[in-house]
Amino acid sequence: MALRFVEHDLTLPAISDEAQRRTGSRVGPITVIEGEVILGAAADQIRQIRPLVGLMKAA
Fold first, then answer.
1. Chain centre distance of CA 27
2. Domain presence at residue 8
3. Which of 13, 19, 26, 51 is most buried by a 10 A CB count?
4. How many independent structural domains does the chain possess?
C-alpha cells in the first residue's frame, strides 16, 4: 500500500502561520488525515494513524 503525503517546512513563517490557523499548533510533527488533526510525538501519532489508514498493529 502506498500512501501519498505532502511535507511542509514549519521553519518558514508563512507555513508555520498556516499550520497554526488550520491545526492550532506550530510545532511538528503535525499530521492531517481527511481533516483529522493528529499532534504529538511520532511514536504516539503512529498508534493513531494506523487505524485511519487501515493498518493493523504489527505483531
1. 11
2. no
3. 19
4. 1
